[in-house]
Specification:
Structural class: alpha+beta
Largest sheet: 7 strands, mixed
CATH architecture of the largest domain: 2-Layer Sandwich
Strand content: 25-35%
CATH class of the largest domain: Alpha Beta
Number of strands: 21
Order of helices and strands: HEEEEHHEHEHHHHEEEEEEEEEEEEEEE
Helix content: 10-25%
Shape: globular
Mean pLDDT: 88
Length: 378
């Protein structure tokens, strides 16, 4: 059996990585820096975010002009997510694996890890303040593509680059979208095969994806009587408020009378006195301006996302030396250069059976929230 395990571990690990790459949708859509370096839980990695380059006027001279420094920013991603999905294989499963058939239990294990990666990335919606579409409990794309063009407008106004934009939506929104001519007709898709297979072709400035892990947000209990308390300078990251009742939750979106910028609560409110917000206040407030929260108290809304690749950062790293035997346990790791995901498989003998476990170490962060927009659904 030992020789069989030595032969089958790389096979199952490779099968698992391919399945993880296919199922972990969000990790393929965000800014990811692949690497085969070894890290431990709690360590931090830096993922570079490109900096803008300003044009300069050309003036012929015998001396070349100085070149402005390029100072890329870095998204600091803490590797604080370490998850495993253990399972057991029979001898028949192991034989099938050698033949190239991924065991059902291994497949289920990978799906669980992929869902965890997706859910963790999607949960970053709470730090996104861009908002498009309706704040009522309705599914997008019921009658038109207005939600997409509204999201495009918000991203444009937030100076989001035009390329590398994605739109990730739940199954209900996708079902509506597929009934629209913009998604259904050959003239709009450019590919008959896409129409026949129901594939979402790029359009309206986005590449499109359906994700069954789209989260929901339950709006806090803050009412319509919230009011700014006193003057505020532009650039502050918290607001002093008065009147009103009920407390807001992290992820609640609101506007302030006098300008159209949408803001998000970055932390749950503990008292009706102060609100931590993002982005920083865009205008000077004189005091007494009314605050209007999106949605209805305690109502739940799906959080579809339109975003640029650099809005979010993701990193996954190998947990230990790629191929080792430790304490009688065989371990093997693999790093995927396409998705940036890493995966480890550990095999250990228990009482009359063999335990297999895929595990993954990763972290994610909001790198540039201005490059993302939320589109609420039912």
């Amino acid at each position: 059996m030992a020789n069989t395990l030595t032969a089958v571990i790389p096979v199952i690990l490779a099968q698992g990585m391919m399945a993880l790459r296919q199922n972990a949708i969000m990790a393929r859509l965000v800014n990811t820096l692949p690497s085969g370096e070894v890290k431990q839980k709690g360590e931090t990695i830096s993922i570079p975010i490109p900096s803008a380059i300003e044009v300069q006027q050309v003036s012929p001279s015998n001396y070349p002009p100085s070149t402005a420094d390029i100072i890329p920013t870095n998204a600091e991603v803490k590797l604080d997510q370490w998850w495993e999905a253990p399972f057991y294989l029979t001898d028949a499963d192991i034989v099938n694996a050698v033949s190239g058939i991924i065991p059902m239990q291994a497949s289920e294990s990978i799906k669980s890890l992929a869902n965890k990666v997706d859910s963790t990335l999607l949960a970053l919606y709470k730090k996104v303040y861009g908002f498009a579409g309706s704040d009522e409990k309705v599914t997008p794309f019921a009658t038109s593509t207005k939600e997409a063009t509204d999201a495009r407008k918000v991203l444009n106004n937030q100076l989001c680059p035009l390329e590398d934009r994605r739109f990730v939506m739940d199954a209900d929104a996708e079902a509506n979208a597929l009934n629209l001519r913009a998604f259904q007709d050959y003239n709009f898709t450019g590919s008959f095969e896409d129409v026949k297979s129901g594939k979402l072709s790029p359009k309206l400035g986005f590449t499109w994806f359906m994700n069954q892990n789209i989260p929901s947000h339950t709006r806090g209990a803050c009412d319509a009587a919230y009011q700014i308390n006193g003057a505020h300078s532009a650039g502050v990251s918290s607001l002093t408020v008065k009147t009103g009742s009920g407390l807001g939750k992290a992820g609640d979106i609101f506007t302030i009378a006098g300008h159209s910028q949408t803001y998000v609560l970055t932390a749950d409110m503990t008292a009706i006195t102060s609100m931590a917000i993002s982005p920083k206040l865009q205008v000077v407030l004189s005091g007494d301006e009314m605050i209007t929260f999106k949605g209805t108290i305690d109502e739940t809304y799906a959080q579809n996302l339109a975003f640029h690749r650099d809005a979010f950062a993701f990193g996954s790293r190998i947990l230990d030396d790629p191929n080792i035997v430790k304490g009688g346990h065989e371990m093997s790791s693999i790093a995927d250069p396409v998705s940036g995901l890493t995966l480890r498989l550990e095999v250990s003998r228990e009482h009359k059976r063999t335990r297999w476990s895929f595990d993954i170490l990763f972290g994610c962060a909001v790198a540039r929230p201005e490059l993302a927009c939320r589109v609420w659904g039912a």
